[in-house]
What does this fold into?
Amino acid sequence: MRLLFLLIFTSCAQLEDRPSSEKIIRKFYETSVWKEGAPKRAQWDKHVRHTFYNSFSYREKKALELVHEKAWSSLPKRDQLFDAIVKNKNQRQEFCKEIPKGGMLHVHPTGLVTREFLTKKIKSFKKKINPLDLLKSGTEGPRKELKKEEIRFLKQLKSKKFNSYTLVEQNKIIDLMFLKIEKAPFDFIRFQAVFSLLRYFIPKNKKIEFEILKDFLLNARNLGISYVELTNVFDFPINMKTLRNTTRRLYKETGVHVRWNVAFIRDNNKEKNRKLRDHLLSFKNRKDLYPIVGIDLVANEKTNDSLEHWEIYRPIIESGLLSSTIHAGEMGNPHNVRDALLMGVNRVGHGVLVQDDHLSMESMVISKKAVEVNLKSNLILGVVSEMKEHPFLKFHRIGIPITFSTDDEGIFETDMAKECMLALEKSNITYNELKKAYFNSLHFSFAQKDLKKQLLHSLKKDYRQFEKKWQLKSN
Ligand SMILES: [Zn+2]
It folds into this structure.
């Protein structure tokens, strides 16, 4: 009895010692202020440790950890009816197709090519395939690599027209561009090889790019998506007139509102990224940049951290011209999430690795920084070794807003219905939590206020119908 009392007393004392929200935010702000321009990594880490982490006592940090652990180990009960839907495969599938999903905030147009689309293109490929050229496109350059058995396969392959290969060979060629879950995990440099292999068969062409986008959006629309943010690598100066026309046409032909985030490639040389930054800063206001709504930092985190892009991010964030998100916490050093947050980003792409940094997570809870969750992508690229290790539900339960998306849905052979299936099958997410995530995807989008309001209103309406049909209740 005395021991029980002691335990209760200790845990209460620890919870009371949790740092206050105000303190965390104040310290966060103090840390992120850096007056002497872009800091060097060593200086920065020292500064963060001193100003941020060391400002909290051991008891405060421990108490916060306990609060988070308690929140994410809570098991809200699934409503009986929803549980029955989840347990029945056909119903689960139907449910995941039909549930209104709001928006997708993490999509790369270059990763949207589907197996069906590529097979059609490759079958009409007029030239003979030169396997050595294909090998070269998949391996040349420092940022990409193929697996040993794939290199062996291409080396022994004869040069022929695609249709003259055996069916097994044809499939093996196509498989080079789709990362199958059975063969996962794939290293990031293997993933990057996909894009140049695709380029071998699908040349850069506006018409084809539009066709691929349209196919994707029509499927998304059928799955209850009304809004998509595309992270795109633009040639600059960006042709705003063409971009506006494309955006308008896409909406007209698919019913989905598209907005764009400008991708900064981590591995690009700094000068190139600075020029793109200055180009964006040359616009006077948000309206002139429409339909561009934000910036995003992409590519391999293992070789390129987040803070090192301070010179791009801080001026753009301070200008108020665009919103911002960063691929951080997908791989590489977990401090990338912390640094992205300190630079002032609005959202985090992936964020998986922040799960051990309780102070950064708490700052995300307080300042409502949403995470863009891409389940299958994380599994295929080995960000988590199995789905049940994925922290998306932990994030949600401690109060970090989560949103679902698909990253590169063609290459990963997924879509929003399949992501929903994964979430239902591999976690104990409740109906309310799932619904909340889909509302988040509009709420935390970078869309203009009016559009956001209109889309949220329609989503509510769609839910009334959906819940009536499925006899589901939510709070
Ligand atoms: Zn991505």
